[in-house]
Amino acid sequence: MNRKNTLVALTLMGALLCGLVSAITYQQVKQHLSEKIINDVNQLGEKLDAQLSRYSQLPKVLASDPRLLDALVTDETSASAINHQYQQTSLLLESWADTLRADTLYLINRQGDTLAASNWQSETSFVGQNYGYRPYFTHALAGNIGQYFALGASSDKRGYYFSAPVYKQNEIIGVLALKVDLSVIEDIWDYDQVDYAIADQHGIVFYSSEDAWLYHSLIALPESLRQKVITSRQYGNAKLDTISKHSLLKDFQQQDITEIQLPGSNISAKMLTTYREMDKVGWAIYGFSPINAAYQYVFQAVFIFSVFYLMLCLAIVSWLQTSFAQKQLALLNDKLEQLVIERTRNLMETNQELRDTIHQYELSQAELKQAHSELVQAAKLAMLGELSASINHEINQPLAAMRTYAENSRKLLAKERYDAVANNIEEIISLNKMIADIIARFKVFARKTTENNTRTAVADSIRSATSLLRNKLIKHGVILRVEELPPHLVVNIDAVQFEQVLINLLHNAIQALEHAHPPQIGVHFAAEDNNVAIHIWDNGPGLDDEQKYKIFNPFYTSKPDGLGLGLTISRRIIDAFSGTLTVKDHSGGGCEFIITLPRSTEDGL
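and the corresponding structure tokens:
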């Protein structure tokens, strides 16, 4: 083959390979960008669901407060007395709004007139406004829980409204409404490389990272629907112009690449698109990323490959020329020397890459250890969340007693019975210390663990765990049988992590005893020369063979609202301290978990 034919073949092959590289690079970049958009949109949806879930049931709970009835059924005749009653109700709503960090709480009568509101002193106060036309009012007046998004009629601020009926003797006499300021979305969105838009069931954008998209429609709305929305003033005076060429929202959602009108211009651009339905509120979150980013990567890949291929072609041509000059020994020697230098440089680069790989591996190990620590802490805080009712009960009891003593002392002071007042103060101080002890127990449990302390007294950890779960045990009527433990029996494990494992096992046992009669949980131990085994059993329904085989697998759970991580994390904690966590059938029915840990050589037994 002559030189001309060789150059033509190399050129054709290079063009074919460049096309192949560009196609592969485009598909990979497109897939990567799509996965990133999907992940970011899903994270935003989960965070927004969590924020709205905080408020969804609050109106129903607050509407049952009897103090709201006075404003709705006042029997006062004078205008000043009625205004005073409405003012007192507004003050109550204002205190609730401050505590709940809600935008506005307001009380509406059956005619749709706002009688009291938390913003009663604001220039945009809702008091006196009629919201009888709002869907959340009509839904609540029909006995349902109302939810609705709209611009505020007074404040012109975006908000999501929750409402619930106010009952008196099974009769609806008014509506309590709560407005949530959706500026919270700006606090939870932190993805700079992806644009997002939140739209209602018609495809109308009411929140977006691009202000120019606000109150535009993702599709061309039917004129009747468009006029209906404009008339309702749900989005103020917005014209609801479209930013795409689609006429059906289903067609828009099925496209992975969509032509979108760029903000603030008449230019359109093709964008990767994905969405996530928010079924609870009837919204959808859309994510957008310009496809131009993929073209940039394709250009870079083709450029790099072209340079490499050109260098390869030059090497081939050089080799061909050298083959025709076999008699030039000096050139052959020079080429050999260059090859040696190239191989040496490649070896040095390979060694450097190996060192970089080792360093990256060490960083990955450190990150994995940190992630494990954060997962353990998250599981601990999740457990505290499940125990929040018990915490609230433990603290509210002494607080109620302290208030009683304080009110009694005020009356005794008026009667100058100072001895009795002094006794009441002593009781208040004692109750204060009790609350401090309760908070200290939960504070110690909630703190992050350290690696400084790996010796723990078994008795102290069991005592702390059962103390934290005391109210939950009492509430479920569980009989706790704890074998008396030697106070100096010490094992090699961090105290806080050991307590976390014990609480998780005891909490699971309590949940398993829902239908047991009578419900019982037992704790006993067996000490050997080098190990200590702690047995925790219950008389619940027990576990079948498949459950015992899968129970320690991540995300396996039999609870409808469980994550399936509690026992996985517990086993990893025990494994990290050279121990074991196993499960078996209890001889008296139910199941039995056995924790085996190395015994400390310094425990004194």
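(Above: one complete record from the training split.) The mean pLDDT is 78.
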